[in-house]
Design goal:
FAD/NAD(P)-binding domain; 7-stranded mixed β-sheet; Polyamine Oxidase, Chain A, domain 2; alpha/beta; 10 helices; binds flavin-adenine dinucleotide; 5-stranded parallel β-sheet; globular; 3 domains; 426 residues
Length: 426
């Protein structure tokens, strides 16, 4: 068995640590921030006097790795699911509303049902989606699916691409979108249900994982930023955290579960995806509790700036993905722009100026373009005791919760495999 030093307490690091413990290894975690969760966490906002997430996150019922992780750590009952795969939408330009409702099974008869498909579309419009099957490695979503007179472009393909890949369809990889659609919509509504954290992201994903690790006696060293990996190609010999140095013994391994830019600073020879895309979120404290149709806590929006709206009690949280231009606006301007959309979506008085917290995640995910995806490294490095994890590594999945958690499990499996192959190597 190994003693494993996991660097980074985001979902990839936490998932890796949990799987290592399951496999019988011992683990120590080091995290630069004073808290765990990385890009998927919650905090108390004193302006709103509410706990908010760093950004709205959605899972899909096909995300089996994430759900399995939640089952292991005890967070599974902290997820909310609608009764079916319901995707309510409003077109902010004309007020039209509809709910896309794929039927549970894989034969997509919902496309034939006027009440279940996207408003303003006909069954034949959906056939265009089959073009994804022939997408080439370098094809972008727009190259494969765009057509100027196809109503599905603005109402389905574009919002779906931006939500799933956080990359504008003109640059996003068609193959990666295809992968997700084959795992979700193509399997039917049972695999496409949107799932949300009931109370907060930390309550569902992070707190249960920390409790699991505490129970296993795993130390998490907060405020420890790894500055240098010392060693040779034969093995990492020491972790340099500035004031603290951690020498590595022969049965010790390192899992680097940091972001792509940090990994490339620590390992200059490593090829990583270079471009990133921002996500802007705004949390708005409403004058009273609000409710959306059928009690579903989320709403897709087209025809405005805001893209998704999530409701928790009296807080409306809005997401704008691939927000390349919006991210440079001032917080006041962003608050004003998104409130116009939210007021319209919730039929509230647009003259109100509710307290709003704008959160800009400038490097929310890697850019999921064909060129950047080719730069995703495999988890196994040539250094025998060094393994990579993170949503940006080569998981075959988008840089999502599912991708991060999958990467952590893959890294843990590789630790076990390598320990079998190179015990006491250095
Ligand atoms: C606003 C926003 C919305 C999103 N929406 C969704 C969504 O709807 N659905 C979905 O599935 N995914 C979504 N994602 C993506 C998802 O959050 C990420 O893919 C996932 O959280 C990444 O986890 P990770 O562990 O790979 O990286 P991170 O969470 O970035 O974890 C890396 C950790 O390493 C630490 N670290 C960095 N450098 C060092 C160092 N030198 N030493 C020690 N520690 C270090 C960091 O502090 C961090 O805690 C969203 C992301 C954002 C930002």
């Amino acid at each position: 068995m190994a003693h494993v030093h996991v660097i980074g307490a985001g979902l990839a690091g936490l998932s890796c640590a949990v799987r290592l413990i399951e496999a019988g290894h011992t683990v120590a975690i080091y995290e630069a921030a004073p808290h765990a969760g990385g890009r998927c966490r919650s905090y108390y906002d004193s302006k709103l006097e509410r706990t908010v997430d760093n950004g709205n996150h959605i899972l899909l019922s096909a995300n089996t790795e994430a759900l399995d992780f939640l089952s292991v750590v005890g967070g599974r009952n902290r997820i909310s699911a609608p009764p079916g795969a319901y995707f309510p939408f409003v077109d902010l330009a004309n007020g039209e509303r509809w709910t896309m409702r794929p039927n549970p099974g894989p034969i997509p008869w919902w496309i034939l049902s006027h009440d279940r498909r996207v408003a303003g579309t006909r069954p034949y419009h959906y056939l265009r989606g089959l073009r994804l099957l022939a997408a080439k490695p370098d094809s972008t979503v727009a190259q494969v699916l765009y057509s100027p007179d196809d109503p599905l472009w603005e109402r389905l393909w574009k919002p779906l691409t931006v939500a799933i890949l956080n990359t504008e369809p003109e640059h996003a990889s068609a193959r990666l979108l295809r992968r997700v659609l084959l795992m979700t919509l193509a399997q039917g509504g049972a695999k496409s249900k949107p799932l949300t954290a009931t109370v907060s992201l930390s309550d569902t994903f992070i707190d249960p994982a920390l409790a699991y690790l505490a129970q296993a006696g795993t130390p998490i060293h907060f405020g420890q930023r790894l500055r240098r990996l010392e060693g040779t190609r034969a093995g990492i010999a020491r972790l340099d955290f500035g004031k603290t140095q951690v020498p590595l013994g022969p049965d010790e391994m390192v899992v680097l579960a940091v972001t792509a830019p940090v990994a490339s600073q620590l390992l200059p020879a490593l090829k990583v995806p270079e471009a990133t895309r921002p996500i802007v979120n705004a949390h708005i404290r409403l004058p009273h509790r609000a409710r959306l149709a059928e009690g579903i806590p989320y709403l897709g929006m087209v025809g405005g700036t805001a893209e998704w709206l999530f409701l928790r009690q009296d807080v409306a949280s809005v997401t704008v993905s691939a927000a390349n231009e919006l991210v440079d606006y001032g917080a006041e301007d962003i608050a004003r722009i998104v409130w116009r959309d939210v007021a319209r979506a919730l039929t509230l008085d647009p003259r109100l100026r509710p307290a709003t917290r704008v959160v800009k995640e400038r490097r929310a995910t890697i850019a999921q373009t064909p060129a950047d995806l080719r730069r995703r490294p495999k988890p196994g490095t040539p250094v025998p005791n060094l393994i990579l994890a993170g949503s940006w590594t080569c998981t075959g999945l988008p840089a999502t919760i599912e991708g991060a958690i999958t990467s952590g499990r893959t890294a843990a499996k590789l630790v076990t495999k390598r320990m079998g192959r190179y015990p006491h190597r250095r």
